[in-house]
Amino acid sequence: MPIKKLSIRHDLIAAMVGVLSVLASINLWFNFESGQADLEAFALVQAEKRAMQLADSMGVQTELIVRNTDLALRQLRDAWNFSPSDFAATVQTVQSTFPQSSLVHVAVIGGDGYVVYSSKGVSGQVFAGDRPHFKVHSEGNSDALDISDPIFGRVSNDWNVLVSRPIFRNGAFAGVIIIGLSPAYLSQQIGKASRSTQDIVVLLNSKGGFLARSVDWERALGKTVPPDRPFLQKDAPTIGAFRAPASLDQAPRIFGWSRLPVNGLIVAVGLDQQTLLAPLLERGSRERDRILGIIAAFLLLGSAIVYLQLHLARQQVQLRQSKAVLSQAQRLARIGSWELNLLTQHLQWSDEVFRIFEVDPRHFGASYDAFLEVVHPEDRTSVKEAFASSLETHLPYAVAHRLLLPDGRIKYVQEHGTSEFSPEGKAVRAIGTVQDITEIKVASDELESYRHHLENLVDARTKELAQAKDAAEAANVAKTSFLANMSHEIRTPLNAITGMSHLMRRAGLDPAQLDRLGKLDAANQHLLALINDILELSKIEAGKFTLDQSSVHVMGLIGNVTSMLHDRAREKQLKLSHEIGPLPAHLVGDPVRLQQCLLNYAANAIKFTEHGEVTVRAALLSQTDTHAQVRFEVQDTGIGIAAEALPRLFSAFEQADSSTIRRYGGTGLGLAITKKLAQLMGGEVGVVSTPGGGSTFWFTAVLKIGSSDQAPPELLAQGSAEAQLRSDFAGARILLAEDEPINREITTILLEDALLDVDWVEDGIQALERARSQRYDLILMDMQMPRMDGVEATRQLRKLPQGAQVPIVAMTANVFAEDKLRCYAAGMNDFISKPTAPAVLHETVLKWLRRSANGQAPQ
Predict the structure, then answer these.
(1) What distance in Å separates the CA atoms of residue 762 and residue 773, rounded to the nearest whole number?
(2) What is the spatial distance between Cα 707 and Cα 704, in angstroms, rounded to a whole number?
């Protein structure tokens, strides 16, 4: 062969090898880059599926936590409604069912917004009516579960996610029951879905606010995710995925979310994109170097094709390994994946789906109809409707259904799916996941069974409580009746003693007789005070005691106390003074009870003080727009009290020690009554004392702040009421209905001394006969009389032609609140209790004669 031809041939061969090498190198490089991009895309798609699976799995667990908490809430609410006294024991039982440190506290907020119970304990009044979780219930009318944003508790002094429900009594809102879950505990629970320290799992409310975060949960408190997140958009699917930087650390992540059916909660799992792609990118970088080496070697040696085949083979092995890892992950999570070609109807299952369905891949028809054959016949319609609706609406779907296995066993599965469509809108492919939820369903059924069992126990306990309540009410009625009768029987002779003593004093006596009469009066007043204390304590404990609401003038109130005790203090050469700080004007409360409490304290202070001084004080503790908390106290320089005796001072029939009873007298009821009155007025009581160094007794009361236009109490004109009766109403006709002869005689004398014309009768029938035949300016009516009592007589009198015009005043030894209500309901205008002080009798008669004279009809 000629050299030239040989050279040309070699050139051609070299050119061909060069061209082939270049073309092969270009092809190899293109295939590598394309394969690398496909691997990254495949890894990201698989990561999205994994994120959705993890979010869905953790959503199921989170939903179980919320439902368990809601069940506990219902149990606590039932316990509170049925037996508040046993509520603390129920709280301990419920707390024992929760994991340690998961439950921060249990609390109950009353209908007025104040915390009435907390497992952490309540120190003083804590107002929670301004909290969102209280407003959402108090302003709504439904029994809705509410889950709050993380909040720092005023009582628990810790971060809480408050799960709450309203409390209703008789169909009306009566408060809120709360379980405070620890954000740290919720963060720990959702963090179990993390597979890497770089991953994050978050629990959000329906507005995107953080409730928990698997890492740095405290940093997330009070923050929300950006509003452009897909799961916050209108008509967002129940489950989905997206890629975006995390809102807190801005790290690129692949997010999967699952929206829970309770309160719109959202569980989102963010897989760190850099961590996921790092091995692939690192491997790709290494592969680039290798490809360049292969290309160089191919250009030099012409063996790139063989190397390329080996390289592709290695890529296929790696792909198979990735699929094996994915299959293992699905098996661990009990979540399989499937893909349906909607053009060919070919169905492809992952290995985990075959395991869940317990189907042999070799005998599976690989079609949608073959799948339906495994679905329980009763659930096939709902499965087909869910799939058809998804194809029609282009939205993802979720459906739970049963599987009927060949051996008759039943499994429960949860399916999620979505479809892909061509640009023309034709469905081409459907993909989805299947999760085995049999264990979750069994646990849920067991929980429901336990709930029904608990309801039966509650019903049985309710019946027992109802029987106990009926027995207690019957006993209470008997006790009330006994006390009312005893009060009447004791007060009737006391009224005679009081009246006769007054008449004897007015008749004129020598000094010795006056001294003896004074001692008789003192004994009579002491006995009356004792009876009043016992009856008042009984009424308070029976829940039949009510407070008046009228103007409170603190200066005048304390002035009354010091005036009444002035003589006692002067006899013992004690200095009696008062100090009053700035107070709001127009206070409203029960001035009689406030004066009673102060009088108890001040009288005791003088009793137990031999020298020095007694000081009465009042000061403002706190104030709102509508209420003021006022502290009243009495300080003395008396004998003091030992520390061990202080705890029992405010118990009924207690004093510091038995020796003080012998030396100073007293029953120990005054402090017990003061404590209960203070509690009824929204306050507390207390004492600070040192033996030999004096004592300071105090109580607080919450008073309303009234308006400046409130009418002042009606006052009599200056001067003696008896003197004014003589001068202004001499000859006024009075009818006295009284069956007890001595009381009738005393009352008649007291009225006639005031120059009033008095007729008397012994029962209600006689009172009716007199009122029909004669006109009277005032009628004094006893309650208990033979033949017809005063209540019925008043009803009949009001039916007479002139019966509505004459004032009728009850004068009776029946002094209970219900007795007064019976009198007023029958048509009486006023109430005088026996024993009756002559001054009170004259003042009451003067008040109603004056009203009649001014043309004011009785009310």
Answers:
(1) 17
(2) 10
What confidence category does residue 22 fall into, taking pLDDT thresholds of 50, 70 and 90? confident
Q: What is the pLDDT of residue 660?
A: 46
CA torsion 300→302→306→309, rounded to 10°? Answer: 80
pLDDT tens-digit readout, 440-488: 888 888 888 888 888 888 888 888 887 877 776 665 555 555 555 555 5
Q: Which of 407, 403, 406, 428 is nearest to 418 (CA)?
A: 428
Q: Which helix (H) or strand (E) is 422 found in, with range? A: none
Non-local CB neighbours of 175 within 8 Å, separated by 6+ positions: 108, 109, 110, 111, 116, 166, 167
HEC-encoded secondary structure of 539-598: HHHCCCCCCCCEEECHHHHHHHHHHHCHHHHHHCCCEEEEEECCCCCCEEECHHHHHHHH
Percent of the chain scored above 70 by pLDDT?
Answer: 81
Question: Between β-strands 210-213 and 200-204, what pairing exists: parallel, antiparallel or unpaired?
Answer: antiparallel
Residue with tokens 């039949």: 544
Query: In degrees to the nearest 10, what's the CA dihedral of 560, 563, 565, 567?
Result: -160
Q: Is there a contact between 24 and 306 (Cβ–Cβ < 8 Å)?
A: no
**Angstrom distances, CA of residue 250 to CA of 52, 218, 278:** 20, 17, 18
Partnered with residue 436 across adjacent β-strands are 413
Dist CA 361 CA 534 (whole Å): 89
Measured distance CA(608)–CA(605) in Å, rounded:
5
From the number of C-beta atoms within 10 Å of its C-beta (0-12, 13-18, 19+), residue 726 rates as middle
Which amino acid, one-letter code, is at 522? A
Query: What whole-number distance in Å separates Cα of residue 101 and Cα of residue 303?
Result: 67
Residue pair 48/431 in contact (Cβ under 8 Å)? The answer is no
Helices marked H in 302-437 — which ranges?
Answer: 304-333, 351-357, 368-374, 380-393
Among 254-263, 324-333, 387-396, 716-725, whose mean pLDDT is lowest? Answer: 324-333
Q: How far is CA 681 from CA 656, 744, 753, 834, in A?
A: 26, 39, 42, 27
Give the DSSP H or E segment for 157: none
Q: Which helix (H) or strand (E) holds 125?
A: none
pTM of the model: 0.38
Q: Mean pLDDT, to the nearest integer, of 251-255?
A: 89
Phi-psi region of 606 (alpha: psi -120 to 50; beta: other; left: phi over 0): alpha
pLDDT digits (tens, 9 = 90+) for 804-815: 889 999 988 766
**Residues 324, 239, 326, CA angle at the centre, nearest 5°?**
5
Q: Strands, DSSP E only, in 94-238?
A: 103-110, 115-118, 146-147, 151-152, 159-169, 172-181, 200-204, 210-213
In tens, the pLDDT along 106-157 reads: 999 998 999 999 988 887 788 988 988 899 898 877 888 999 889 888 888 8
Among 515, 21, 96, CA closest to 296 = 21
Contact 725, 710 (CB under 8 A): no
Q: Which residues contact 655 (CB under 8 A, 6 or more apart)?
A: 649, 661, 666, 668
Q: Is the bond preceding 361 in cis, omega lying within 30 degrees of 0?
A: no
Q: Which two tokens stand for residue 594?
A: 């406030």
Output the DSSP codes for 631-697: EEEEEE-S----GGGGGGTTSTT--S-HHHHHHH---SHHHHHHHHHHHHTT--EEEEEETTTEEEE
Alpha-helical segments (H) within 712-784: 721-728, 741-753, 764-773
Average pLDDT over residues 268-278: 84
In three-state secondary structure terms, 775 is coil
Token reading at 6:
């040989």
State the amino acid at position 465 in one-letter form.
L
